[in-house]
């Protein structure tokens, strides 16, 4: 998903850079207001995890490979504002030290890998959970579909940017088919990693997962019952 320098026109790169700067600035402002003492350390851990997992590619098809985007995962774990900032920091480090993407495309990559999949993924996660029981299994299932669909949303967003200012000569229909086809397979990997990661944390500490805060009373009730049982 990392867009290289020169793949989009200068005008589109500037525009996406301005949108991303606005998104990060707004996230910084909201994160100061909403980030709790419990979730603050998790934001750093999530950034480190996303950075590490993004370095690992998994085979997709026809010689292509994919890796975790991490936007949906980060926002489910620590909320939309801290999650957006965490993934954006990863992308800045990757652009500066590992030449993933490019400096002129940094705003585009933050928009396509952090903001759009993060915010859309969290919205999908919360939307799915409204129709499922409030338990750990529902959190895991919603995390999978949030990860999967957020990748497709980001791939579609890239196609729109390409239609506006793509510098390649590939037909738009070819780009759309390739982006959605390949990224559906990448999305399955994204969904699995997101579900496994969120599920692992929820199993032991749902209070550390932004998207599973409603399960905390259930955990406390279980603990209270265990204490009461031990007293008997």
Query: Could you say which structural class the secondary elements and strand pairing correspond to?
Result: mainly alpha
The secondary-structure element order is HHEEHHHHHH
Question: Unreliable stretches, pLDDT < 50, 5 or more residues?
Answer: none
Strand content of the residues, in percent?
A: under 5%
Kindly state the number of beta strands: 2
Helix count, DSSP H or I runs of 4 or more residues:
8
Terminus-to-terminus distance = 57 Å
Shape: globular
The whole-number mean of residue pLDDT values reads 87
Rg, alpha carbons: 19 Å
Instruction: Please give the share of residues in helix.
Output: over 70%
Strand order within the widest beta sheet: 1-2
Biggest β-sheet, characterized? 2 strands, antiparallel
How would you describe what is shown here?
The chain has eight helices and two strands, in the order H-H-E-E-H-H-H-H-H-H. The protein is mainly alpha-helical and 232 residues long. It has a two-stranded antiparallel ribbon. Helix 1 (10-34) packs across helix 4 (80-97) and helix 3 (71-78) packs across helix 6. It is globular.
